[in-house]
Amino acid sequence: MTTTRTTCPYCGVGCGVLATPNPDGTTAIAGDPDHPANFGRLCSKGSALGETLSLTGRLLHPEINGKRAAWDEALNLVADTFSRTIAEHGPDSVAFYGSGQLLTEDYYVANKLMKGFIGSGNMDTNSRLCMASSVAGHKRAFGSDTVPGNYEDLELADLIVLVGSNLGWCHPVLYQRIARAKAERPGMRVVLIDPRRTTTADIADLHLQVQSDGDSALFVGLLAHLAQNGAIAPQFVSDHTSGLDAAMLVAEDWPIARIAEATGVPEHAIGLFFEWFAKTEKTVTVFSQGVNQSASGTDKVNAIINCHLLTGRIGRPGMGPFSVTGQPNAMGGREVGGLANMLAAHMDFIPEAVERVGRFWGSDRVACAPGLKAVDLFAAMARGEIKAVWIMATNPVDSMPEADLVRTALASCPFVVISDMSAETDTGIHAHVRLPAAGWGEKNGTVTNSERRISRQRPFLPLPGEARPDWWIITQVAKRMGFGAAFDFAGPDEIFAEHAALSSFENNGTRDFDLTGLIDAEYEALHPVQWPIRTKPTARLFADGRFFTPDGKARFIPVLPPPPFAPAPGQFILNTGRVRDHWHTMTRTGKAARLSAHYAEPFVEIHPADAAALNIRRASLVRIGNRHGSAVLRALVTDRQRRGHLFVPMHWTDQFASNARIDALVPAKVDPVSHQPALKMAQAHAEPFQTTIYGFFVARSRPILTGIDYWAIAEAAGGVRGEIALAREPAEWLAWIRVVFQLPETANLVTLHDRHSGRRSMALIEDGRLIFALYLSPDPVLVSRQWAADLLSAEGVSGPVVLAGRPGTDMPDGGPIVCACFSVGSNTIAAAVTDQGCTSVEAVGACTKAGSNCGSCRPEIRSIIEAFRLQAAE
Ligand code: SF4
Q: Comparing C-alpha atoms, which of 9, 103, 87 is closest to residue 52?
């Protein structure tokens, strides 16, 4: 077996992966022990990569208007239509919308084609939704989009401040690195600043449960506190920064009492955080989407950076502001100019840069001004101003704010092209041309992670069907548009060499992004390496106090915290985000049964008091809505949510649920500097979803769910599992079931109907194997989901046991999955605690393996142990 060193395609941690294809067609996945991002660790998503490689649901051939077409025909149509549209309406009538899933080489040629040869700035990316505010904040403070530190700093720090970052679920390997460092050095402190008590709170010494957007006031006030208490690096500030007085003028208006009012955090907790920050030299402030996805995101980034500049804690081991990106190649996209407001190689749309890039590319038509940023791009499309768009490896009909309007805009756009792995996405439905792109395991190129480390993604699988790499598709279109000489690349290695050469071109240390040392690098053998790399890689920047502003000094930015957001009466603040085991719109993770086991259904987190006030019961269904749209979700009643707040995950699409595209409810309000949408701040009302019957099913194949009032479906080993709800009972259950589950008239169902409770169960068992089972109840169904799902792969299944909805004594019920890596359920963990006396996460791991791989489930294991400890004490 040949093992390939590659990089995980999910989050911005950028873990190294060893992939070994097996003779049976499966692929063994392991963490790369030599990769400096993860040293062999992987999270649940990374560990399950091998289970997401099937060709089910893949787009394998080019299509024009839904019909299979030859590559030549499709490429000619794309090139001709773009060329004609540009000739008739000008270059700004067309646009590309890319993705942090693209490799740097794909991104580079897409950006070069749009900005360099079509001559429009209209190349934006879904990274606009992820970290555009960090880019803007960095550029305002440093004069460049530079992340100063690296992951090692997280282990060297004595204080880690996590702001708007559920690291435990969203960047699990970094969370594990911190957790391990803290276990080894118990004096290390972690502060979590987040409106939700997420699982990341498990390692926090202090959790400041701020009001949404309250983090601005916290860091503005911290700046004043640091100055007033002598926690200043006077030499660094005077020699290497400017603008402190203006920033301080605002900050001094924010005493702790006012911050407490604005954030909802008690004064003593704020005081403790300030004291720790002031006294701890080695402090790293980690921030991600909770900071970025805000209408004041750029200001928040600068409020954080201000505190690090004042204390001189930047660029040295164990200290610095640290933006963690969401996507695997968000950083690579930034490097090539994938954002509409950046030209290329970290250069802006300033005349000398436009001229320089034009000379380098040999083009006299380089765009002179920024293009349309994501929200503006789709708004322009809705107005009919964008007449041809190419969407690459992303799903804006689900991920953009006001997503229903984006869908309408795409439906009205005269020419929509997608290049994607997936045949069925909510965006792809609107495409006139669909181009099959290579996926992870087939692609060849580089990605850059959150610590500026460039790693190779290497192929280990053949290209399936007629799928082609994105760089190839883009260069083929460019050649057909008449730009052949500039796009004559034989492979990604040549593209990377040109990308490195552009970063180096007339640079001489004036620009942060510099790959001079990689221009002649052996591409195949490229080891993970941190830029800038003039002669050697750079682990940290700015310790020398030299920044990329015109005067070489970092800039303090005055930040005025926004007024506290008060929702209208009867409305909640709606926050959106990720769950542990799914990625974006689930086109890949949705294929893995074990990744669907942790959360198999879209949900809304609501505080118990709010739920009680609205008569929303646990596990019932809730409709949330506002003037933009509505969604129906399972109630997850929990006090980890603040009162007056709701949280809904962003992953579910029309492929997986009847009505759960949550970004349809988020207004298209953007940060004024970065134009990043405020995806974590919507208003919505909530109410019980009226239903007369709830159902849960497992089946070997996907049933016909169209027309059912509520449904959600997920992969299970051997089939699918799903939830349904009906407003009215069908006149004839058996007839209804035959249609939904596509059963022949002759199918011999076993049924059970308890007239007293109104519960029914029905199943079809053939030769001891379960074909389907359906449980119906006037209340939320109480059947153990994982046990029922496991029946799909069991032999000798007994009808009475299936209908009873609980395991017989010979088949224990492991309970809902907690540990996705080893498929360990909560009942198994509870048994380890009660029967085997496990009193620590480590002991549970030794007994059951739960929590012993990626560690993302360790907080949940700890809460189970804790629940039994409390029971014992009662
Ligand atoms: Fe992939 Fe998980 Fe590593 Fe992120 S933390 S890169 S999702 S393995």
A: 9
- How far out from the chain centre does Cα 246 lie? 36
E strand or H helix at 161, and its extent?
A: strand 159-163
| Nearest-angstrom CA–CA distance, 303 and 289 | 15
The arithmetic mean of pLDDT across residues 121-150, rounded, is 97
Helices (H), 112-146: 132-142
The single-letter code of the amino acid at 72 is D
How, if at all, do strands 63-64 and 433-436 pair? antiparallel
Q: How far does the centroid of ligand 1 lie from the alpha carbon of residue 249, in Å?
A: 42
Helix (H, G, I), strand (E, B) or coil at 796: coil
pLDDT tens column, 156-208: 999 999 999 999 999 999 999 999 999 999 999 999 999 999 999 999 999 99
* Shortest-distance atom of ligand 1 to CA 42: 8
To the question of pTM greater than 0.90 for the whole model, the response is yes
Token pair belonging to 332 = 């690579």
Atom of ligand 1 minimally distant from the CA of 10: 7
Where are the alpha helices (H) located in 254-373, listed in sequence order? 256-263, 267-279, 289-292, 297-311, 330-336, 351-361
Tell me which range, 13-27, 588-602, 796-810, is most confidently predicted by mean pLDDT: 13-27
Count of beta carbons in the 10 Å neighbourhood of residue 780? 18
Q: Where does ligand 1 bind, in terms of residues with CB under 6 Å?
A: 8, 10-11, 13-15, 38, 42-43, 45-46, 171-173
User: Ligand 1 mean position to 224 CA, how many Å?
Assistant: 37
408 burial via Cβ count (<10 Å: 0-12, 13-18, 19+): middle
- Exposure letters 43-80 (e unless 16+ CB within 10 A, then b): bbbbbbbbbbbeeeebbebbbbeeeebebeebbebbbe
* Mutational test site, ligand 1, from 8, 177, 457, max ligand atoms within 8 Å of CB: 8
Atom number, ligand 1, closest to the C-alpha of residue 173 = 5
472: how many CB neighbours lie within 10 A of its CB?
Answer: 18
Tokens of 762: 């029905």
Nearest CA to ligand 1 atom 3: 15
